[in-house]
Design a protein that fits this description.
The structure holds two protein chains of two kinds. By secondary structure, chain A is mostly helical. Chain A contains eleven helices and no strands. Chain B starts with a helix and ends in a 10-residue tail after the last helix. The chains are: A mainly alpha, B mainly alpha.
Chain lengths: ~270, ~325
């Protein structure tokens, strides 16, 4: 395994670990007012405090959780839908037309304005955001599954399985689905990246779950403080969550792209944004 | 070029659909403009509305009419070129959009053009360099940048070049209280606007660049494997001419991507404008969502939807010019 794979893997593992044990490891409750506002980093508060006197390190440790939870739910939903619909489309003509037009439609709509509307419509909670992102990201994914399933279905072994009387469903589940493994894993990671990015962007715009501390939400609050750049506070309040998001998302993208290229040399670099 | 009739029909149907969705979507949001008005939208003093005052306001803005009649009034206004009156901003929507749109267009179109140009050049280069260390480094770096959320790139640039090393202005499109009178004033203002544009432009450009680069690189690579490239080389054409042949064919997916991005110019500036407090349509749309300002939302959605439709039509026409096989097929 190369450094190019190990480094992103390490970052992703660290963030997931943080999401699991962060709330236990943190020194203070993340939203409690524990000290004077805007204290620079010190022994008691290694990353200083916010304008409300909250501990930045505590917020940073807890803030990974929403990203990871939204990513897990959203990407799993998206993958399940994409697999089901993509496989169905690989089989039937009518489902095929449906998938293609759905994918075209979802690719032709700008996602962020749509998300802003959906979140304003159903209210910003972790679950609704995850569900909205899952529902928005499956069609592009389904298209890849469909293409791969078609090519798999055209192979000789499928013909052989049909010849000895295997039913279509059995062929799909026993033979085609396992063959899709590598590409599904790669697409899953890229979907996770998309979901994390979208969740952070929404939170940055102030449309995240208001009761949770998240990295995007931290950036939103810091930017909402009018005097942020008039004091050195940005260096300990704004930068940590920004760098956290950047590292996590970039790691997911690098790992996903590397796996994607391995799984489908033909698709190399043709990935839609 | 003759436009196939069903392409025109599709365009009309889509436009009609756009108008309806456009009208219904804002009204589907929870809350209404009067409640938002009463909350004060942040700056104003919150006012408590008595039921009578509320009814009066609703009648004034035509919000008490049945939806069908509101829709007819909306269409009627549109036909006259009247976009309505903003409830939150208390001014004609046409004026608001006319003041905000040029900034978004300047930012969005310049970023798109620069990114597409740079992406195409780098992409063709990278296809030629395929497998070399430079190409791997470039692709890796661009995948990395392409993965970052726009607000992260924007904030890092802002912190680096406007705060830590205060080289460029951090927010807005013009310095406050700048006067643009006279020739000297105009020149000064243009310089001021350009320096304010730099950071948002760089952020948006960096967001666009990887897509164009990757598509151009992949398309050129695919072309280089084609038989005609081997033929061209075999008959002794210079590499530069071979590159031109390949690039023209590789332009197809590139143009398709450009068309898609062109349609999103208005929808795509929301985050960047928010980071740099740039006074464009994206900011306007965001404020209008928070204030449930139906007339403004309708105008902005109409504008961005129309941009998508027009950009797609333009891209289809350009693709047909580039590839004779697509002409008259009417698939588009």
């Amino acid at each position: 395994m190369s450094v190019g794979l190990l480094l992103p893997l390490a970052v992703i593992a660290a963030v997931i670990l943080l999401a699991v044990i962060g709330p236990v490891a943190m020194p203070y409750p993340p939203d409690a007012f524990v000290a004077r506002p805007l204290l620079p980093p010190s022994q008691a508060h290694p990353l200083g405090t916010t304008a409300l006197g909250q501990d930045v390190l505590a917020q940073l440790l807890v803030g990974a959780r929403p990203s990871v939870v939204v990513a897990a739910i959203g990407a799993t939903l998206s993958t399940a839908l994409a697999l089901a619909v993509g496989l169905a489309a690989g089989l039937g003509r009518r489902a095929d037309a449906l998938v293609r037009s759905a994918a075209d439609l979802f690719l032709a709509v700008p996602h962020l304005p749509l998300l802003i509307l959906v979140v304003a419509l159903v209210g910003p909670s972790l679950l609704t955001i995850a569900a909205a992102l899952g529902l928005l990201s499956w069609p592009a994914f389904a298209r890849v599954v469909r293409a791969q399933a078609r090519s798999e279905l055209a192979r000789g072994y499928v013909e052989a399985a049909r010849a000895i009387g295997g039913s279509e469903l059995r062929i799909l589940v026993r033979h085609v689905a396992p063959a899709l493994g590598p590409i599904v894993l790669a697409k899953f990671l890229l979907t996770v990246q998309y979901v994390v990015l979208a969740e952070a962007s929404l939170a940055f715009l102030g449309l995240g779950d208001p009761v949770l501390v998240s990295w995007g939400g931290m950036v939103h609050r810091a930017m909402g403080y009018g005097l942020l750049f008039a004091t050195p506070a940005w260096s300990w309040w704004l930068l940590p969550p920004v760098l956290g998001i950047a590292l996590f998302v970039a790691s997911l993208a690098l790992l996903g792209t590397a796996l994607d290229e391995r799984a489908t040399p033909a698709l190399r670099a043709l990935r839609p944004r | 070029m003759r436009t196939p009739p069903h392409a025109l029909v599709r365009f009309v149907v889509l436009t009609a659909l756009l108008l309806v969705v456009n009208f219904l979507l804002p009204r589907a949001l929870p809350g209404d403009p009067l409640a938002a008005l009463a909350r004060g939208g942040g700056e104003d003093v919150p006012i408590a509305l008595t039921p009578e005052a509320r009814a009066q306001l609703a009648a004034y803005y035509g919000l008490d009419l049945p939806l069908s009649q509101q829709f007819l009034r909306y269409l009627e206004g549109l036909a006259r070129g009247d976009l309505g009156f903003s409830i939150h901003f208390q001014q004609p929507v046409g004026d608001l959009v006319a003041r905000r749109l040029p900034w978004s267009a300047l930012l969005g179109l310049t970023a798109l053009a620069l990114a597409a140009f740079a992406g195409a050049l780098l992409g063709v280069r990278a296809a030629w360099w395929h497998g070399r260390r430079e190409e791997r480094a470039l692709t890796g770096a661009l995948v990395f940048f392409g993965a970052l959320p726009e607000f992260v790139v924007g904030l890092v640039l802002l912190v680096l070049l406007a705060v830590w090393w205060p080289l460029l202005p951090a927010r807005g499109a013009l310095s406050p209280f700048a006067s643009c009178d006279g020739l000297a004033g105009v020149v000064r203002c243009a310089g001021d606007a350009a320096s304010h544009l730099m950071l948002p432009l760089a952020t948006l450009g960096l967001a666009h660049l990887p897509g164009f680069y990757l598509v151009m690189r992949a398309a050129t690579l695919a072309e280089l494997a084609q038989g005609y490239v081997v033929t061209a080389r075999a008959k002794g054409l210079r590499e530069r001419h071979v590159a031109l042949h390949a690039a023209r064919n590789a332009l197809l997916p590139f143009v398709a991507l450009f068309g898609a991005r062109l349609g999103f110019v208005i929808g795509g500036v929301v985050v960047v404008e928010s980071v740099f407090a740039y006074p464009g349509v994206g900011q306007l749309a965001f404020e209008a969502v928070l204030a449930r300002d139906y007339p403004v939302l309708q105008a902005v959605f109409l504008l961005s939807g129309a941009a998508v439709l027009v950009a797609n039509a333009v891209a289809d026409a350009a693709l047909a010019r580039l590839d004779p096989r697509l002409r008259g097929a009417g698939t588009a």
